[in-house]
Structure formats: C-alpha cells, structure tokens
Design brief:
Helices cover 81% and strands 0% of the residues. It has 219 residues and is mainly alpha-helical. The longest helix is centred in the middle third of the chain and has 55 residues.
Length: 219
C-alpha cells in the first residue's frame, strides 16, 4: 500500500516542473500584451463612436497589439463605431454639442448627418449668443476698470505737483501725500494687471467667436 501511494505521489511530482514553467511564462506577459488580450474590441469601437472620434483614433493601439502578437478583432471592432455613432449623431446630442461650442469632426454617417448638422448648428447659435453676451459683459468691465485707472492716474498727477510745490514746514502734509501716492501706485498696478488679463481673455473669446461663426457659416 505504501509503494502504491509513493508511485502516485511520484507521478504528481513529475508535473511540478511543467506547472512552474507555465506559471513563469504567464507571469512574464508584458503589460502591453496583457492590455491587448484584455481589450474588448467591440466596446473600444463603440466608445470611439460615442465620443465622435475618427476611426483611426485607436490605430496606434491596434498596431501595438499587432506587434505584440495579438491581432485586433477587426470584425468585432468595426461593429462598435456604428452603434456608438447612432448615439453620438442624435439630434439631442447635436444640439448639446453645439450649445457647448464643441467641435464636430464630420464623423456622422450620411443617413444621420443631415439631422445632426441641423441640430448642431442650432446649438452653435445658442453658444454664439452666450459667448457674445460674455464678451459684452467683460468689455463693459474693462471699460469701467480703465475709467478707474484714469481717475487714479489723474489723482497721482495732482499729488506729484503738490509734492513738487511743497514748502518748508509742510513735512507732515508732504509725508501724507507721499503715503497716498504709494497707495495709488498699488491701485494703479492692480488695475493695470486686471485690464491686461481681461484683454487676453477677450482676445481668446473673440477668436473663438470668429471660428464658431465661420464654422456655422454665419458670414
């Protein structure tokens, strides 16, 4: 009985080296190859379609998997984008994207593009109105800041003349005017920085408005 048990254990031990080798190679799978093996190609294509991306957006990943010896399942992958695009190219999504000022890369299939484009352009008009209103608000704010800056600079000019004309015995008044000029200089710098920042924002917003109007064929 002991001999039979020993032979049984011996047979089991023969498989140990093979199991260890298989485990070793399984553990040596590169992260890139593992990612390829775990890729759901149909889901990948669907997500590209839902995001409105071009078909070649996952090209580098597919090429990488090909090099790793894991060819992409193109049959499943090509089924995904159409399903995703049906959601992306909906009328509702078209208007939402337009209202947000998002770009459209022309990915919608012919049977969905006409209705999508109409909704997208409607949305762009909403975005144009909103952006125009924001530009008007910032422009008014900039005008107000410039008026404040002009008043500060006028006051500084007046104090400079007063300081220059100060007489002996007016040291206390002179120190007060100098202190006030220093505060005005701080206000001048703060206002100038705010005006410059607004000018940069307005420049970007006007460029964006021009691009959107051109894209929407408003000209």
């Amino acid at each position: 009985m002991k001999s039979v048990g020993w032979e049984s254990e011996s047979k089991k031990l023969k498989w140990v080296p093979l199991i260890i080798v298989l485990a070793f190679f399984a553990g040596c799978t590169s992260p890139a190859k593992k990612a390829c093996l775990e890729t759901d190609w149909s889901k990948l294509g669907y997500e590209e379609g839902v995001r409105g991306e071009r078909v070649d957006s996952s090209l580098s990943h597919r090429q990488s998997c090909q090099r790793e010896g894991v060819p992409p399942d193109m049959l499943r992958y090509e089924q995904g984008p159409r399903q995703g695009l049906e959601k992306y190219c909906s009328i509702r999504n078209g208007q939402t994207l337009g209202a947000r000022g998002c770009s459209y890369l022309g990915v919608c299939p012919p049977d969905l593009e006409e209705s999508f484009n109409a909704a997208y352009h409607d949305g762009l008009q909403i975005h144009v109105r909103k952006l125009s209103a924001e530009i008007s608000t910032l422009t008014a704010k900039q005008v107000s800041l410039r008026q404040k800056l002009a008043a500060v600079e006028e006051q500084m000019s007046y104090l400079e003349k007063e300081v220059a004309q100060a007489r002996t015995g007016q040291e206390r008044m002179l120190m007060g005017m100098i202190s006030e000029m220093q505060m005005l200089e701080a206000d001048q710098m703060s206002l100038s920085l705010q005006i410059d920042a607004l000018e940069m924002d307005l420049k970007k917003m006007r460029q964006r408005l021009y691009q959107i109007k051109k894209q929407a064929d408003f000209f």
